[in-house]
Amino acid sequence: MAKSSDSFTFTVGKLDAGMAILLGERAHLIEFPSLLLPPGATTGSIVNISVSQNISEEKKRDNEFWELQNDILEKYGTTLPEPPQLQLRNITQTSITLEWPQLNLATAKLRSLDIYRNFVRIAPIPSPLTNTSTKLSGLAIDTDYSFKLVLRTTAGTFTSNILRTRTHTMTDTSGISVCFGNVQDSVLLENAKLALNEMGAKWSDVIQIDTTHFVCTTPAATPSGAQVTGSVSSAPGVEYQKALQLSIPVVQPQWILACHSEKKMIAIHPYYLGASPATPMNSAPFTRPQSMSQASLPSPSGSRASPVTQKNNRQSMPPPQRVTSTSPPASSFVNQTQYQPPQIQPIEPTPEEDETSLSAQEETEDDDDEMSTRPRKGTMSKNFKFPPPIDSAVPPVPDLPTVSKPLGHRDSSLDTEEVALSPSNAVAEVPAPPPVEKERSPSGNQNDTYEELGETEEIELN
């Protein structure tokens, strides 16, 4: 079998549909596609297969591969997401408003955007692809804070700059941001705007994220709408409704003038829409009113009471009053007259009734004297003593007579026989003790609730 460096000889061993088995010189077996065999080749045919390297095609393939890699690197590998730049928009005594430019993610995908306060994660930013600002409330007055944003993408994590700031004091009014609504008095509106400019505050006609107060004198959209009842123009304005939804306090322009005159933040509760702006401002701003138990009540003379008097006056309720039988009870309701018992007209007694009533009155007075010394039912007086015993002692037994003669001897002078009496057969008669006199029960008092003494019992002594 001829052999060359570029050609190899094989024998077709088996020809099947689609595949042919070629046998080499050293029992090499090769599966070869039957479509590549020369026409007319069958089982047992001898074929030569030439093998050569195609260098030009290899170069073309390599060039196409590296061009694709360069395009991927230029599009996805050289441009990275930009870290957000955090900026301060507005700051007040208890809140801060932050903003940043639109996020540039390049070709990466957004995972999350979180806000950090004092290097502690607070919450994720809602809708970070469209939202570019946030407002944080509930801060402490005159306190240092630091803020930053952390951007997480499929291309990595990127951190913004650290923004350090300090909340305002009560005398700093530059953080006020007002949205003006419908103010009917044009002069009052101009004075309020001039006061805001002098305080370093800002104002606008639309509600923004850093708006702190909504100022108006009527919720209607137009000045004429406040006077026309039942018309479409009398409905609340859009900005007024938005202020209610965002929980922005709605105040009157007099609040701005009060802050300007006091040169500090003033409590807004006397200046709410609908309240009287003439309410005196005696309490300090943002302080809780003092309770009645802590307030020092003035003395009746008008001067300041002493500390002892103030301590005694610090009570939430007056002491309870004892109601006597002579005075009617005071009413516990306001503006209610006291109870007046019905007056009974006296009936003039007849002469016979006068005598009877006088005797009954005397007996009642005697009974009252006894009852004043007697204890009440269920109690015992400390001065109680048992009555002295009644002289009811048993009389002594007389001595028995002596017998001078023996028994059985009959005296001629006596018809009877003298027999000595022994104590065993002697019976002594004991007189009964005299009855104890009962205590006289009061006959004039029918409502007497005291118990009477029981009857005495006779006891025989043997």
Care to describe what's here?
With 462 residues, the chain is an alpha+beta fold. Among the domains are: 7-50; 87-166, Immunoglobulin-like (Sandwich), CATH 2.60.40; 177-271, BRCT domain (Rossmann fold). It is 18% helix and 17% strand. It has helices spanning 55-77, 186-199, 238-245, 254-262, 307-313, 351-373, and strands at 7-15, 19-23, 29-33, 46-50, 87-91, 96-99, 110-117, 120-124, 133-136, 144-153, 156-159, 163-166, 177-180, 202-204, 213-215, 250-251. The strands form four sheets. Strands 7, 8, 10, 11 and 12 form a five-stranded antiparallel beta sheet that branches. A four-stranded antiparallel beta sheet has the order 3-2-1-4, with no helix packed on it. β13 (177-180), α2 (186-199) and β14 (202-204) form a beta-alpha-beta unit. The model is unreliable at 225-232, 279-317, 323-337, 404-409 and 412-426 (pLDDT under 50).
Helix content: 10-25%
What summary fits the major beta sheet? 5 strands, antiparallel
Quote the average pLDDT.
74
- N-to-C order of helices and strands: EEEEHEEEEEEEEEHEEHEHHH
CATH T-level topology of the domain at 177-271? Rossmann fold
CATH class category name of the domain at 177-271: Alpha Beta
Strand content: 15-25%
Helix tally?
6
Judged by helices, strands and strand pairing, the structural class is alpha+beta
> Count the strands?
16
The rounded distance between the terminal residues' Cα atoms is 170 Å
**What value does the Rg take, in angstroms?**
61 Å
The general outline is elongated
Biased composition (Pro residues): 386-399
Biased composition (Acidic residues): 350-370, 449-462
Domain Fibronectin type-III: 80-174
GO molecular function, one term: protein dimerization activity
